Each structure stands twice: as C-alpha cells, then as structure tokens.
Predict the structure.
Amino acid sequence: MQEFNTLGYDIPEEDVAERLNGDGPGYEHLDDDQIVEYVQQCVQNEDQSDADDDEDDDDDTIVACPIRNTEAMHMFGKCLIGLRHQEETSTYNTSILLSLKNLAAKKRQSTLTQTNITSYFK
C-alpha cells in the first residue's frame, strides 16, 4: 500500500483489495470452457480482420504524411514545454517526447541537405 503513496496515488485500501480480488463491477467469473470459447472467438475475429486488411492493402498506394517534419518538430517542442509544467510528468515521459522531437528534427535536416549521387550507390 505504501508503494502507491510513494508514487503519488492516494488510493484507499478497500479499493486496492477490491481490485485485487476482482469482485468489482465489470468483472466476469468464467470457467475454463467459457475462457476457451472467448479466446476462439477472438482468434476468429482477428483472422477476419487480417483478411479484410489484406484485401485493402492490394492498392499499394503510398499516402503522404499531411504534416511536414518542420511542423512536427515545432509541435513536439510545444508539447514538451507543456509537459514539463505538468506535475504528473515523469522523466520517462519527457525523454520519449524529446526523442520524438529529435527524430522529427533529423528527418527535417535530411530533407534540407542535398543528396550526393554517390550516396545512392552505397
């Protein structure tokens, strides 16, 4: 229970016990046969959706990104500024957003630099 408090969550012990026991609303108690039936349905639905996706992928058309790398870099920068002012922000969240901003900056830079003909033969 102390672990939740150190992470900044104020959760009553009754709620934690209820969630761990699975007795809360929305929890189903299934026997083995029901679990097997549910998994088989999920697999069938997944197979059908994969087949539908395969039919849609026959186009082989490449859709261009509607956002330029410069715009993405500036948007990630603004998100980073906003994220740093949030109390719930962790270092992990900030580092992921920073790496996405750096990726957009690298892509932007690669589009700005002129490509040599020798780079196509590597």
Q: What stands out?
A: The chain has a mean pLDDT of 77. The chain has five helices and no strands.
